[in-house]
From TrEMBL:
Its main location: membrane. One of its GO terms (cellular component) is plasma membrane. The keyword Membrane applies. Keywords: Cell membrane, Membrane, Transmembrane, Transmembrane helix. The lineage of its organism: Bacteria, Pseudomonadati, Pseudomonadota, Alphaproteobacteria, Sphingomonadales. GO terms for biological process: glycolipid biosynthetic process. The chain crosses the membrane at residues 66-94, 115-137, 143-160, 165-182, 194-209, 238-258, 273-289, 301-324. GO terms for molecular function: transferase activity, transferring alkyl or aryl (other than methyl) groups. PANTHER family: DECAPRENYL-PHOSPHATE PHOSPHORIBOSYLTRANSFERASE, PRENYLTRANSFERASES. This is UbiA family prenyltransferase. It comes from Sphingomonas cavernae.
Length: 325
């Protein structure tokens, strides 16, 4: 027993010395822990989702309100929305931490895997929200009001609405549309109601595709019901028809806009806008087919910004808009 105890003590002492050396080695690399925390914080803030807020530039481009003042206001609006969105993302991940640990992809989120503590997350939520409204204060009060509505709606979505069947996708579409309205208020322009109607139906289609993608991955993993969501895998059969109906309704609204009197206020050659319709039809069909093949893992808007053909479609639409001026 004495020999055994001696060997055990030797092994334990050696392990302790090894751990001490490892800790000293880590201490000699300044900033390693802070860099890791910063990386996880940026991941938690979903900085790569800030590209969704490019929508605040739409009113400036569509209404031809070009100029340094409009550009500066749009950039400020973009920053304010990005900070507010990040605050809401952190809140969402804090609430969903338990459910995310069971998810195929979401379990890698910083809070779910324990890389960010609850206290740090709460600090980020408050700090980002304060920063967002501090930046927003540089713009007209109407913009601040829209940002406030967006932030409250986003928080409400994270706490309650995302668990409500059908209402969740409607609110998601509204959140995207609010970005367009906010861009309008930031530069003080008066965008056509056609743009608002188009945005609502177009982003409703993308919200439905997002839910379809989540359910498709759930089915592929052998699940039956999405955690913290009201959807089940049997809902897949109606998701695509609903998304298609909403998407093509948006395109129909756009074609009606081409034939309206409002279009003459902005475009000298409105008939050229017809070329945008087939581009949108192609992009929407391709998106739904790729989602069905489990090729769209992320939010459709985020996916589009990293997809070459989607970027080419976006470039074509922008080119046609300029051509129609």
């Amino acid at each position: 027993m004495n020999a055994r105890s001696s060997r055990y003590s030797f092994v334990m002492n050696r392990a302790q010395r090894s751990n001490t050396l490892d800790n000293k080695a880590q201490a000699q690399v300044p900033g390693t822990g802070l860099l890791g925390l910063a990386r996880d914080a940026l991941m938690l803030m979903r900085v790569h989702h800030w590209q969704k807020n490019i929508l605040v530039f739409v009113p400036m481009l569509v209404s031809r309100e070009f100029g340094m003042a409009s550009l500066g206001a749009s950039i400020t609006a973009f920053l304010a929305f990005s900070l507010a969105a990040s605050s809401a993302y952190v809140l969402n991940d804090l609430i969903d931490a338990e459910a995310d640990r069971l998810h195929q992809f979401k379990r890698e989120r910083p809070i779910a895997r324990g890389a960010i503590s609850r206290a740090v997350a709460i600090g980020l939520i408050l700090g980002l929200a304060v920063a967002a409204f501090a930046v927003a204060a540089l713009l007209p009060i109407e913009f601040v009001v829209v940002l406030g509505v967006y932030y409250c709606a986003t928080c409400l979505y994270s706490v309650i609405v995302k668990r409500m069947l059908g209402l969740d996708v409607v609110v998601l579409a509204l959140l995207y549309t609010l970005r367009v309205i906010a861009g309008d208020e930031a530069i003080g322009s008066d965008s056509s109601e056609w743009i608002i109607a188009f945005s609502l139906f177009f982003f409703l289609a993308l919200a439905l595709v997002k839910r379809f993608t989540e359910l498709s991955y759930l089915l592929d993993a052998g699940g039956t019901r999405a955690p913290s969501r009201a959807y089940r895998v049997e809902d897949l059969r109606v998701m695509v028809p609903l998304a298609a109906a909403s998407g093509f309704s948006a395109i129909t609204i756009f074609t009606r806009f081409i034939g309206s009197e409002d279009v003459l206020l902005t475009y000298s050659h409105p008939e050229r806008l017809w070329y945008i319709a087939p581009v949108l039809i192609y992009w929407l069909i391709r998106l739904m087919l790729l989602a069905n093949r489990l090729k769209v893992r992320d939010d459709p808007v985020v996916y589009a910004t990293g997809d070459l053909k989607s970027l080419l479609c976006g470039g074509a639409v922008a080119g046609i808009l300029v051509w129609a001026w």
